[in-house]
Amino acid sequence: MHIHPLERRWIYVVLAVIGIFLLAIFYTAIARNIHPPSHIETIDSASLHLSEEFAEDKLGVWTQPDGTIKVTLVAARYGFYPREIQLPAGTQVTFRIASADVLHGIHIPMTNMGTMVVPGYVSEITTTFPKPGEYPMLCNEYCGLGHDHMWSKVTVVAKESWPAAPNAQPVRR
Question: Domain count of the chain?
Answer without folding.
Answer: 2
